[in-house]
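Is this the right way to post structure tokens for a design question? Let me know if I should format differently. Anyway, here goes:
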């Protein structure tokens, strides 16, 4: 493993921004939590998914985000039971396409 890849390994689990040699939307960079590094690519979690359900809170509060009043209001101001689920996203970025790596100083 070369020094650049070894240095990237120190930031696994931290939020970083990666700029790549590409155009379009990918030219604006990728920000997320660095999940893994290998000699071919890095893996970033760019959007975290919905956490697992909590069976205790569901019995008291309902199983959807709208149950706590954060969702859109339905009839008589009572929140609609609209699920708020996301699956998240992960990006695999080839090492040879990375042109800039940004991280916090601390």
């Amino acid at each position: 493993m070369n020094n650049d890849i070894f240095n990237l390994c120190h930031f696994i689990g931290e939020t970083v921004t990666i700029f790549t040699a590409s155009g379009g939307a990918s030219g604006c960079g990728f920000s997320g939590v660095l999940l893994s590094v290998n000699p071919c690519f890095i893996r970033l979690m760019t959007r975290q998914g919905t956490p697992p359900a909590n069976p205790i809170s569901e019995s008291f509060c309902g199983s959807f985000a709208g149950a706590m009043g954060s969702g859109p209001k339905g009839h008589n101001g009572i929140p609609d039971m609209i699920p708020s689920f996301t699956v998240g996203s992960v990006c695999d970025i080839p090492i040879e396409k990375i042109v800039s790596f940004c991280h916090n100083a601390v």
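Format looks fine. Someone answered above. Worth noting: The beta strands are 15-20, 30-37, 41-47, 89-94, 98-103. The longest strand covers residues 30-37.
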